[in-house]
């Protein structure tokens, strides 16, 4: 089978109405597939004010604001219009990018029509309840995810550490890697700007500990704040720079009144903001890859991160940064203090990270997924059987 024979239906709960690493990766994938001659149709909720222009034709999926997190949309159903469009498009590959109601239905329709299905895993949904006092729900969420992913022909994780976790959780028997790339023209050490730092009130000899990401509790904002408190109590001089936006911003600003908040940055402005930090601190355990970790490495920053899926596949502990047990506030503070106090160590770790980041390019990682599409489609076309479902 050739790429030009592919007709891919992509189902996503968020393709472009809120900017995040997952949907930007999906947009890059669609652009790459189209350049290789494949046809792609996206089925996703749409809004009047999207966060960025989408790539490809998007068919609207009816949705409502997600309870308690109104910036996100909850897809409700595959409407008659979308169902008619899907039938006319006649995909020979279905890609589901989020395990919500509509994607469950899309898998059912695909299986009924004999169309192979792949799923990409973008976040650890089973960990979310712990950030809202609902830890007891984690086993139930994991069971629902297992039922969903086992109905797919294959699933793809963005890192080997996440892929191994999915295997251990028995989510599917065919677990592949669809990694992430980095735009080396945007994320480069040359974007560092002392003038930009000075405009924010940062002195040239200040060491800046940075955070980059959506300001939501599941990004580990509590651990970040507690760690900064430890540094201050120890009398370790530093500045804190927060780049990002989200519903927890007011909480974060109150928790870190001396931090500098820039709001959301994009494009070369984001590259400048990240390169103008001195250390990236990423305590999150919910990412399956950690785009911000890779971007920080690309601009030459040492990264202090939680030893969790994603980051542990990127950060070479003790070389390009430090990996600390999740929630280990004292250990996080120790590592940050070491980098703050040792310019040579900070530069060496940043250089190691920038060197490692060079091998991550978008075209290479998207070609890997395209090859997997073709392998799975050819297997099914030659008489291969679909997965049996939840019981394997």
From TrEMBL:
SUPFAM superfamilies: UDP-Glycosyltransferase/glycogen phosphorylase. Residues 20-185 form the Glycosyltransferase subfamily 4-like N-terminal domain. GO terms for molecular function: glycosyltransferase activity. Keywords: Transferase. InterPro entries: Glyco_trans_4-like_N, Glycosyltransferase_grp1. Gene3D superfamilies: Glycogen Phosphorylase B. Pfam families: Glyco_trans_1_4, Glyco_transf_4. This is Glycosyltransferase involved in cell wall biosynthesis. It comes from Sphingomonas prati.
